[in-house]
Design a protein that fits this description.
single chain, alpha+beta, four-stranded antiparallel beta sheet, three-stranded antiparallel beta sheet, 5 helices, 17 strands, 28% helix, globular
């Protein structure tokens, strides 16, 4: 529907359309007419929504900081789950993974060859030489946040340490390509090229996602894409950058017993860092890390 220049903007800001999203919409229509995939209005966040997401993200960051202080050799992943649940709820939040599509825990803990969606358990005890991804997500007042970090337990091999470090660098390379009116493919190719240049592969089937008003929104965010393709990155978009980088081949499989935990097909380690990003008028802002 067309909106008059002096009518209230569709975003709910209360401003006149000409003072708010008119130029934005004109840019979107121009790109759409040229055949590019553009974001729908419902994933463009308002200032109010962004503030709500930042408050949720503040809890998510604090929880991962707390895990950083507590995680150690001999700890079970079930203990990590309890730490996440207690810290999140103490700060007024809700763990977003808890009971999400049947997921039974408050956090994902993925060790060594587990790529993602590892389910915390009393049976999984962290030992020296392990690398583990702790993937934390939070709901606060209906706003979602999501990020993950890698942890090295005790002395780890140089091979594993390099994998962890290069994966973190992949995220940085991707962030450098997050620019208003650029393309998600720009970011995806930067991640892909850096990983492969260092002798690694990137998981194809699982990627990042839009986030904010829902846990998973448009767009799906891949890291085996080409520059100049995929959805346009418009100011107000929020999504995660979370490449899963494998030491060996890219092939994966899902545990047929729990239907959640993803493993590398060849049994070699995998690493992942995740940040939640807002596209701004002049670049990006990391909301959660």
């Amino acid at each position: 529907m067309k909106i008059g220049r002096n009518e209230p903007c569709w975003c709910g800001s209360g401003k006149k359309y000409k003072m708010c999203h008119q130029k934005f919409d004109e840019k979107i229509e121009q790109l759409k007419s040229r055949g590019y995939k553009v974001p729908p209005r419902n994933i463009i966040k308002t200032e109010e929504q962004i503030e709500g997401m930042k408050k949720s993200a503040a809890i998510n960051i604090a929880v991962l900081d707390h895990v950083t202080d507590c995680i150690k050799e001999g700890m079970t992943t079930e203990e990590i789950d309890q730490i996440v649940y207690e810290k999140t709820t103490a700060m007024g939040g809700i763990p977003a993974t808890l009971n999400y599509q049947g997921f039974p825990k408050s956090v994902c803990t993925s060790i060594n060859e587990q790529v993602c969606h590892g389910i915390p358990s009393e049976a999984d005890i962290l030992k020296e030489g392990d690398i583990v991804n702790v993937d934390c997500s939070t709901i606060l007042n209906g706003y979602f946040s999501d990020s993950s970090r890698m942890f090295c337990i005790g002395e780890i091999s140089e091979e594993k340490r390099r994998l962890v470090n290069i994966t973190r660098e992949c995220v940085k390379k991707g962030l450098e390509q997050v620019k208003p009116w650029g393309f998600l493919g720009d970011m995806g190719q930067a991640v892909h090229d850096y990983a492969y240049a260092n002798g690694y592969t990137v998981v194809r089937e699982i990627g990042g996602h839009g986030i904010g008003l829902e846990f998973h929104e448009e767009p799906w965010v891949g890291y085996n894409s080409e520059a100049g393709t995929e959805m346009v990155m418009a100011p107000g978009m929020t999504f995660t950058i979370e490449p899963m980088v494998n030491m060996g081949k890219a092939e994966i499989y899902v545990d047929d017993k729990n239907d959640w935990t993803v493993y590398t097909q060849d049994g070699k380690p995998s690493a992942q860092w995740e940040v939640m990003v807002l596209v701004t008028e002049d670049g990006y802002e990391i909301l959660s890390y």
